[in-house]
Amino acid sequence: MDNLISLVNKIQRACTALGDHGDTSALPTLWDSLPSIAVVGGQSSGKSSVLESVVGKDFLPRGSGIVTRRPLVLQLHKLEEGSREYAEFLHLPRKRFTDFGAVRKEIADETDRETGKTKQISSVPIHLSIYSPNVVNLTLIDLPGLTKVAVEGQPDSIVQEIENMVRSYIEKPNCLILAISPANQDLATSDAIKISREVDPTGERTYGVLTKIDLMDKGTDAVDILEGKAYRLKFPWIGVVNRSQADINKNVDMIAARRREREYFSSTPEYKHLAHRMGSEHLAKMLSKQLENVIKAKIPGIQSLINKTILELETELSRLGKPIAADAGGKLYSIMEICRLFDQIYKEHLDGVYVYKFILLVQTTSLLYIYVMKAVRVDIIFECRRPGGDKIYNVFDNQLPAALKRLQFDKQLSMENIKKLITEADGYQPHLIAPEQGYRRLIESSLITIRGPAEAAVDAVHALLKDLVHKAISETLELKQYPGLRVEVTNAACESLERMREESKKATLKLVDMECGYLTVDYFRKLPQDVEKGGNPSHSLFDRYNESYLRRIGSTVLSYVNMVCASLRHSIPKSIVHGQVREAKRSLLDRFFTELGSMEQKRLSSLLNEDPAVMERRTALSQRLELYRSAQTEIDTVAWSK
To answer: Who has greater pLDDT, 583 or 34?
Structure first.
């Protein structure tokens, strides 16, 4: 089970290195979910002496007032017998301390680096690992001592600040509380018991430690407390006898102090029956065993939390986008890639591509997580389509034919207009056989009206293509990250569509003009011949254009115009697709790409400007994701090694 404590030690060190201290943050915290043992006690309760007795080394700063001003995460690692003892700090990863006096000085110096030379406190922990054959595998968090009065140089708020810091650790359900109380004071006034009772009223997580038993007044003892009669906890109270101040001043060896502690409990009549569960050595072993049990019970929940949080972090990082490259080439590549993503989405809209979304269900220890993936799998949960191309087809299949039908050829081919145009075409000399010039003028004046529906079709498709640009822009998540680039891409795409519209309009109107400029002669040759179509020469000029004859001309012209309309109904969409739709798919951003190649680095950088808050958020999320992935790997390694 020792590897479980080592596992939590590694994750705690990673948390501290990557800024996860369990404090209030907009980021998910792994620190709060890790089982830990927090050491709580008032000033002068003997808290530091208990820790030094557990370690077997004199290594903690001492003095009057508040000495511990930052949480100290103390990780103990048992070595083989005969191995040399040493200590390491997380903030000095390549330095080993074999002189524990230097360890004491470094704790004080590192505290001052964070808080200054003032008496202020900080919630940022110091990580200290001690490797020794004389310890058990254990992790303890030494918290600032609770106090009722601020010392000189400290604000009055320091009392509440310390209590808030202690409470922030021990109120977490995964935290075991090591409550240190001196036996020579009334237990009812114990700061440690008071605050522990507030966050753990049933005593399920609290371990009571009674210090200074040897300093009690003569005729008094702590048996009722140690036997759980005075104040009952789930776990038995443990009494310890620390070194006296005189022993500390004389540098009495810790090993000798432990031996004297064992002798005290075994030889004192009041405590002899409790000696087997008294002393700092028993305390360390008991805490190590309890911490192992808690870690074993909490590991499945931690795994579930890690898996869930990794998914959340990856999702948010994906939404925020990738970080910006530093060099000009990297910036240009990033811009080109983002533009290609936009172009691909735009093409998918034009083609009406189905985007399949799948769900992969992953069963973890206690939670069921859902991953939405864009890949081909067996279980299709739902599908969605990028619309756009169907609306363009609607222009060709409905709007254009409807517009052609609405053309008022009957006005062009009224009896009055037919007679007028034919007469004008004949001039001073009436036609001999058939009014050919009149036919041409009637047909041209009718066909020219088709330009309106043709232009309208070009404009309608242009509007749809432009609308798809804005849709594709909004669906390209990377463009949301860079507002400047989004504006440039939008403008470039719309300018391209405008050029394509003008070219398409010219080509489409040419189709109409070609029909006006050259008539299909075979159509007229196949018409039935009328021997009387020239009229009776004996009649006057105006009598020759009788109503029956003019109606026949109008019918012939209308039939030809309808034939041309039917033909243009098919050729106009082809022209539009060729000049606008296919061209938009092929070269929507070509001119923009050309401009990018000659753009200065400063200009490229401006396109990739983003909100500094977003950049900071991405960096923080990346570090936190690194932490969770590292923790996931560590836990998986332990799980497979079982």
So the answer is: 583
